[in-house]
Amino acid sequence: MPGLLRASDLAGGRRRRRTAVAEERPEPTGRPERPDDDGEPRRPARKRRRAETGERDQERERKAEEPVDPEARARDICLRLLTGAAKTRRQLADALRKREIPDEVAEGVLARFEEVGLIDDAAFAAAWVEFRHTNRGLSRRALAQELRTKGVAGDLVEQAVAQVEPEDETDAARALVERKLRTTRGLERDTRIRRLVGMLARRGYSEGLAFRVVRETIEAEGGDGPDGPW
């Protein structure tokens, strides 16, 4: 019939239209990213290398910014360390020695910092004791050991730990036991004692104080357990 198209013409027309559409689509450029095992696209190798060398680059930049003069370098190192948190004289001296600052230069800079109050081992020790005893419940013995490790002189250590009264130490030990006590319920009495006393020992409490506080705390709880009261 006139005006009608043959099926072959229609199919050819469809093929021609599909071919035209395909020709209009842009060809993909480059290789697709290969996903990692977790499904995330793999970072290009160049970015991985940059991430791996980032810290080394920062270290080189920091060294490049440091003054060449040893005394100026020593001051710069100390100020950088003190910006983050207070430090003892010994800690700063160790840092300067590690950075190969001459001993005589380091001593002069540290002495000057002490004169202006930037280094104060007594204030450091007092603040350390207050924070660690209040927040961690450490005993005077543990606090003294920590301060000695940081290079605080013996007389300053004694002054700092003296602010913790025996009653304060006992109260701190009892608070530690009370927080831990509920996790030991249902255990045998000897196991409870061993765990609680061991916890106090790790914080520097003497064996006598630890046993006394543990016994009093469990008795206050009621002394109930698989083995009965004390």
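(the above was protein one; protein two follows)
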Amino acid sequence: MNFKDILIKRRAINFFDPDRDVEESLLKTIIKNAANAPSSYNLQPWKLMVLRDHDKKSALQTLAFNQPKITEAPVILIVLADRDGWKAGNSSFESVFKDNVDSGKMQQEQKDGFSGTTQTLYGQTSESSQAFANKNAGLFAMSLMYSATEQGLETHPMDGFDHDGVKKEFNIPDNYWIPMLIAVGYLKPGVKVHPKAWRQSYEEMILK
């Protein structure tokens, strides 16, 4: 499937086949491929919670306006945006800096400077940390949905849920914001997918 086909085929699907599972190896491939998404200073401030268990998905469904697709889809991903991803000591920050040193891009003594740069850009206010986390996690989430489409799967991003309720139910640490949930699975047999809805034209998107 070429990329244009992926762009066109990717849809927000409401009806998933509850009898067709997503193999763990396939899900891992999708997630690993999506991890190639761009991020600020390669900090990758995102994590995922993977829900397969019916009881856990049912608990989530009650916190998400009882959307049927949450229990019908074999996999629900809770996308987590790490507001502390820019901080020295954060696991991703430390891994990125180590990689920079190992590859020769930086020297060990540059760590304080690197930390100061990321703090200046992303840690001055709670709003800037929130924006940093959400923008980068959004890039990852979009890549994840394209990755799933390329593997023949369907997805649906959801932002209709009780954010604080989900954090409490699944014991999600305070440094994480939840930009969206993503349902992953196969289209329910017999469901007709309507043509892609209206999109802005080139002329409508460009402001002059």
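Reviewer note on protein two: The mean pLDDT is 97.
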